[in-house]
Design a protein that fits this description.
18% strand, alpha/beta, elongated, 7 helices
Length: 336
């Protein structure tokens, strides 16, 4: 299909900008936000490196009524162009979280700013495992029997997350600050695999629902989807082969043994740490008790010394009083 990009690479800065735009404008509402994607296209790969928000409003009752500020878009693009001349308008983004009726008309509007725009729908609150965005582009569909005129439809484009060296360093710093130190690597790996299995289960449920709709006649047969499903079935291993079953069992047992050994080592280290903490606490309590006893002995000794000094002082005062009385008696007899 001419004009359809092979892949759309979204950079982390764009995802952060979209989430920030949504949180500032439409958080806790049913509204969506829209913006312009900037980047460059090279050999069929679209690199989305930057973006900016655009004022947008639409009627909740009539989706065909919407407003997008063209003047603001053009002014912002001219300013971005002065900063980085390599970045061009390559499409637009929406927080969807799904395609809407007015998206085709807005996509045609964006065609005035670039030849083959891409639409990226970002899910700011993802409910499934996987990339939180989907890329689309529009193509002209022509019915083979010629009963209808050609019309534009959206098709998905493969997507991935890419980053430059500077962006990779920034993302690593963010993840390092967000990382929970209380969760071990093993627990995080198991959690990631569990989330992946949940995502796979959801995809299989979608396939089952689609095939059921086709079987009941509610949806037409799509040969492209059937081809993809056949490719998936062809990649499934044949579990009836004994050698494959044995090798999978051996591999699984080896992994379980390693996990069991790691758990034992972790438990042993935890027990050692517990014992060390208990001994350290006992020594600390003994040290505090010794200090308290020494302080009490010192205070008792000081009190005893003080009492002894007071007793000696009282005895000395009494002796002085006796001496004074002895001196005064002869003087009084002589005068009489």
């Amino acid at each position: 299909m001419p004009g359809v990009p092979d892949k759309v690479v979204l950079h982390p800065l764009v995802l952060l900008s979209v989430v920030d735009h949504y949180n500032r404008v439409a958080k806790d509402t049913k509204k969506r936000v829209i913006g312009v994607l900037l980047g460059e296209t090279y050999k069929g790969q679209v690199d989305v490196t930057n973006s900016f928000a655009v004022p947008f409003e639409e009627d909740d009752k009539d989706p065909s009524i919407w407003f997008l500020d063209h003047s603001y878009l053009e002014v912002m693009f001219r300013m971005f162009k002065k900063v980085n001349a390599r970045e061009h308008v390559i499409g637009w983004y929406s927080t969807g979280p799904r395609l809407r009726e007015a998206d085709l008309s807005m996509h045609q509007l964006m065609s005035n700013y670039c030849s083959n725009p891409v639409l990226v729908i970002c899910e700011v609150e993802p409910k499934e495992v996987g990339l939180p965005f989907t890329a689309y582009t529009a193509i002209d569909e022509v019915r083979e029997d010629g009963t209808e005129k050609s019309r534009q439809i959206f098709i998905t484009v493969p997507t991935e997350v890419g980053q430059t060296e500077a962006e990779e360093i920034g993302v690593e710093h963010l993840l390092r600050n967000v990382k929970d130190a209380t969760i071990s690597t093993l627990a995080s790996d198991v959690s990631a695999k569990l989330q992946a299995l949940k995502g796979l289960k959801g995809r299989l449920a979608d396939v089952q629902e689609y095939l059921g709709a086709v079987l009941e006649g509610r949806l037409p047969v799509n040969n492209d989807i059937m081809t993809y499903l056949q490719d998936i079935f062809n990649l499934l291993p044949n579990m009836n082969v004994e050698a494959l079953s044995t090798s999978l069992a051996v591999k699984g047992n080896d992994m379980m043994a390693a996990i069991y050994l790691a758990s034992l080592i972790r438990s042993t280290l935890a027990l050692h740490k517990l014992i060390d903490n208990k001994e350290q606490r006992m020594w600390s309590e003994k040290e505090r008790a010794d200090k308290a006893k020494a302080a009490a002995d010192k205070a008792a000794k000081a009190e005893a010394d003080k009492a002894a000094n007071s007793k000696d002082g009282a005895a000395a005062d009494k002796d002085q009083d006796k001496q004074a009385d002895g001196k005064m008696k002869p003087t009084s007899n002589g005068s009489s």
